[in-house]
Design a protein that fits this description.
Elements lengths: L3 H7 L6 H7 L7 E3 L5 E3 L3 H4 L7 E7 L9 H14 L4 E5 L4 H5 L7 E2 L2 E4 L1 H5 L5 H21 L6 E6 L3 E3 L9 E3 L10 E3 L1 E3 L4 H8 L3 H10 L1 E5 L4 E3 H4 L2 H7 L7 E5 L4 E4 L14 H10 L2 E5 L4 H16 L5 E6 L1 H7 L12 H20 L4 E6 L6 H13 L4 E4 L1 H4 L5 H13 L14 H13 L3 E4 L1 H13 L5 E5 L19 E10 L4 E6 L18 E2 L5 E2 L3
Parallel strand pairs: 3-16, 3-17, 4-15, 4-16, 8-11, 17-18, 18-19, 20-22, 21-23
Antiparallel strand pairs: 1-2, 2-14, 5-6, 6-14, 7-12, 9-10, 12-13, 14-15, 22-23, 24-25
């Protein structure tokens, strides 16, 4: 039986992408077509809109995700459609899906039901080739590293201290640790290596944080790939590889223009994970969207503890704008799981578990309040939600003074989000400009990590491993203390324990090691058992994927 999301997407009536571009004030010469329904936007269009007032950015975030699903991307798309329906000029800004999760368990990132970005099959498969370009650029650096070792190693790179990994856009646990260079003297120097999933690579982060092609090249030059025998950092610039990498990415840096089921424009560009990387679409796409529309509706990956925190402290800081409001997505189903209900029992009414799970939502609300931003809670409605459960949730929201809207965009498209859109608009207009970030760049790395752990996660303290403590001292000597921090943490929990649902209290966050991402402008702090190459589940989603005799996708969500 076909998945309803795919059926709905395949029945969509799409406008020619030239029409969508024209509605944004773009000419045919401003876009580079990939058929009739996809296009890249040339970067020089920013010059045409340089004096136009910037649109306001609305961030969609969520509670900690569960296997029950929260519908953050669906809410983002539906909210964009709702803005259009009430006569506002809006554009959606999303990340591109990675093939790894698509063929694993998470699914795509184009929304669902009647709130989708199309063409859905293209977007969730190869799209315009951006992620492939990032994979190629990542592996080009690896090839140049091993060639440098083979050709005499003039830089004195210590093969034991090469930190750069190869990339693949697939969940493949067998590639987490590999040995390369075997087979004799003609095959370079044998050494241990490994793969990251492409969307966790620093090249993806650099692509999404660069302001233009020149900044992309400069950031690539700064990437640390390893260390010499005397512990001096070696960069991509030392290898002379930044030019080639930038050349490979010259088209990938251009944002992709598509549309929703209701023909609202959408920019989909870049795809860094939020549990490992910074989890937001590109700065170029977001800043371009701010020039093309009055309202930019974007999302950041996973819960507010990951994507939203990084959006505030990393992306918007580097992009040079302040968000205007936040939409926090929650579902009855997910809150019941946070209250202890198993996935197979979610259809049974359980108001007590729901009330227990509300603690998770409460903590994420406190996080948004810490940034001093106005917010609306989007209660993403599911057909099996009971009246008693919905009443318990909305009653709690009312009693505690939280603005909310029951959103039905999956079922009704933009019409199901009109109330949400109007309430978000009210919050945007009421924004008093008091937005604040959790730390200053000049704070120490340790203080930045503690600020995130205690304020956002609710940890009582942070424990640094011996390795992490040594790295903190070394990074301070290198002058890297003023960089931002990108936390690598499980998305399933506020803590570093993926099984700790709800609102964990009195826990200590464990930081096991750090790694510099100088090109991205941050230091990654690895917590718990986080890995940068996921694995497939026992029954991957790929098992159900196929293609029919007419060339149409089957089993794709």
């Amino acid at each position: 039986m076909e998945n309803k999301d795919l059926q709905i997407a395949q029945q969509a009536t799409m406008k020619d992408i030239g029409e969508i571009a024209a509605e944004l004030g773009l000419k045919e010469t401003d876009i580079e077509r990939f058929g009739n329904h996809k296009a890249k936007i040339r970067l020089d269009v920013m010059e045409k809109f340089e004096k136009k007032k910037d649109g306001r950015v609305i961030l969609v975030s969520a509670i900690n995700p569960t296997p029950a699903g929260e519908g953050k991307s669906t809410t983002t798309v539906g909210l964009g459609q709702a803005f259009t329906k009430i006569g506002e000029q809006a554009i959606i800004a999303l990340r591109e899906p990675s093939l790894g999760p698509a063929m694993g368990v998470k699914g795509g990132a184009a929304g669902g039901g009647h709130a989708q970005v199309v063409p859905m099959e293209d977007i969730n498969l190869h799209f315009t080739g951006d992620i492939h370009a990032v994979t190629t650029a990542t592996n080009a650096i690896s090839a140049m590293i091993d060639n440098h070792l083979h050709q005499g190693n003039d830089l004195g790179i210590d093969p034991r201290r090469i930190t750069w990994k190869r990339g693949l856009d697939m969940n493949d646990r067998a590639l987490r640790q590999v040995t390369v260079g075997l087979g004799g003297v003609g095959n370079s120097v044998p050494r241990e290596d490994g793969f990251n999933i492409t969307v966790a690579s620093e090249i993806m982060a650099v692509l999404c944080l660069a302001r233009d092609i020149h900044d992309l090249k400069a950031r690539t030059r700064r990437i640390v790939i390893g260390y010499t025998y005397d512990r001096r950092p070696i960069t991509v610039g030392d290898l002379g590889a930044e030019g080639a990498v930038t050349l490979v990415l010259k088209d990938a840096i251009k944002p992709n223009l598509v549309q929703t089921l209701e023909n609202t424009p959408a920019l989909m560009h870049g795809g860094p994970f939020a549990n490992i990387a910074h989890g937001a679409n590109s700065i170029i796409a977001t800043n371009m969207a701010r020039k093309l529309a009055d309202y930019v509706i974007t999302e950041a990956g996973f819960g507010a503890d990951l994507g939203a925190e990084k959006f505030m402290n990393i992306k918007s800081r580097q992009a040079g704008f302040d968000p205007s409001a936040v939409v926090l997505v929650a579902t009855v189903r997910a809150l019941k799981m946070h209250g202890g209900v198993k996935k197979d029992d979610l259809r049974e009414e359980n108001v007590d578990a729901l009330r227990q799970g509300i603690e998770n939502l409460e903590k994420h609300i406190e996080t948004i309040q810490a940034f001093k931003l106005p917010y609306v809670i989007a209660v993403n409605h599911f057909v099996h939600d009971t009246e008693a459960e919905l009443s318990a949730l909305t009653g709690w929201l009312e009693e505690n003074g939280h603005t909310y809207s029951v959103s039905k965009v999956w079922e009704e498209g933009g019409a199901g989000g009109v109330d949400l859109a109007r309430k978000v608009l009210e919050k945007v207009e009421a924004n008093d400009g008091s937005f604040t970030r959790l730390y200053r760049n000049e704070d120490s790395l340790e203080d930045k990590i503690r600020a995130i752990a205690t304020t956002v996660y609710g940890a009582k303290d942070v424990a640094f491993s011996k390795k992490a403590k040594n790295q903190l001292r070394r990074y301070k000597r290198e002058g890297w203390d003023d960089l931002q921090v990108c936390m690598a943490k499980t998305q399933m929990s506020l803590s570093d324990d993926p099984k700790a649902y709800g609102r964990p209290r009195d826990f200590v966050l464990n930081v096991r090691e750090l790694s510099p991402s100088l090109g991205a402008g941050f230091i990654v702090a690895m917590t718990g058992d986080m890995m940068t190459m996921p694995g497939l589940p026992k029954r991957p989603a790929a098992v159900d994927m196929d293609i029919d005799d007419e060339g149409n996708a089957k089993g794709l969500f």
